[in-house]
Amino acid sequence: MTENDNTAGDENEAGQTPAGATPAGATHSGFVALIGPTNAGKSTLLNRLVGAKVSIVSHKVQTTRAIVRGIAIHDNAQIVFMDTPGIFKPRRRLDRAMVTSAWGGAKDADLILLLIDSERGIRGDAEAILEGLKEVQQPKILVLNKIDRVRHEDLLKLAAAANEAVAFERTFMVSATTGSGCDDLMDYLSATLPEGPWYYPEDQISDLPMRQLAAEITREKLFLRLHQELPYASHVETEKWEERKDGSVRIEQVIYVERDSQKKIALGKNGDAIKAISTASRKELSEILEQPVHLFLFVKVRENWGDDPERFREMGLEFPKS
Fold first, then answer.
1. What is the pLDDT of residues 200-223, one digit of tens each?
2. Concatenated DSSP letters for 109-147?
3. Which helix (H) or strand (E) holds 211?
C-alpha cells in the first residue's frame, strides 16, 4: 500500500451549457465510431481530436477494453467519438467480449472512421476488418494514420487499395501524434453530421464515470511500467472514493492479477514498481481532478478473473456465454 500527496492542478475556466442546449445558429451532432486493428493509434487520435486525455494509451496492444466516448466541439457541431477496442482474432473470453463491443459500437454510430496504420498497411486484422465493413450500412471514412513515417506514393497506393475493397465516403491522411491532417478531418465531420441539438454540456469531454476513468489511468501506468513483464491478466478497479473536508480526495484501488508470481511483478522489488505506478497515477489524477489526491493501491490475486461476469460488468463489457 502506498500514499502520495500532491497539490491541485490548474483551474478549469470553461463555461457550461446545459445538456441538449445549443449555441446560436444551426447545430450538428452525432456519434462517430473509431474502429481499427490493435495499436493503429485510435486512442491517440481520440485524445488529439477531443483536445484532452479521455482514453489511455500504451505500447501494449489491446489496451482499450471497452468503448470510451470522447466529446469534441468543432464549429457548431458536437462530435461524440466512440473509441472502440482494437479488432483482432479473439482467443480468450475477454478477447471475444472486446471484439463484440467494437463491432457493436460501429453499428450504433452515425459515421464510422476506419483507422489504418500506414506503416503496417492492409494485412492480417486490417484485411479482416475491411471484409467485415462490407456488411455495415453506415457511411464509412478511411483515415490513414502515421503518415509522417511513410512515403507519399505508398500512402496513395494504400488508399487506393482500401477504397477498392470498401466504398469509403472520404479518405483522410493524418498523424495522430503531430496533429497533421486532423483539422481537415474535424471540418468534414462537423459539416457531415446531421443537424440537431447537442447531447452533452459544452464543457463535458467524456461520459466515462470518474471512478472508472481513475481506474483506467492507473491501468495505463501499470502497462507503461510493466509492459514487458506483466501479462494482460491484470485489471484495476476503484473500490473507494472519499471527498475529504480539506478539499482532497482519498481513492482506494485494487489491481487484480491471476497468480502470485504476477503479484510480485506488480509490487516490484521492495515495492518499487507499485510506488512508481502510484506516483504517476496520482500526479495525473490530481491534474484532472484539480484537487489533491491521496491514492492507495492494493494488489490482489483473483484466479481466472477473466471468467468472472462481475469483472466484465466493471469494464463495461457484455460477458460472453462461451
1. 888 888 877 788 888 888 988 998
2. SSEEEEEEETTT-S-THHHHHHHHHTT--S-EEEEEE-G
3. helix 210-226
